[in-house]
Amino acid sequence: MMTWLSSQNRKNQAKFRDMLLHGKKGAFYSTLIRLSNSYGTEAENGKIINLPFTNQELANFCGTSREVVNRMLAQLRKNNVISIKKGRITILDFDYLKQEIDCENCPIEICTID
What we know:
Arc Repressor Mutant, subunit A; alpha+beta; 4-stranded antiparallel beta sheet; globular
């Protein structure tokens, strides 16, 4: 029980850190990384998040509005950080996302969406 509680605490601390220190952008970039760790598969050009998400669902994950998510997705596509096909997001440049939120390279067990 203590191990599970400790793990949940570390997950929550990491999420709050990204949201508080880096605002909406940090929360959204962190959400993309966490989604890819939870539902992603490797592809030749990046990592594909295998579940289609609406912009509203993405906004709900990171506690922001759909409009903000729309703008951030457009900017990431413009900068060739992500691509979107049939509602599925492919992350092309993980280093960019990690650098923007000062990622601590925590273990995959901590950096997931669930």
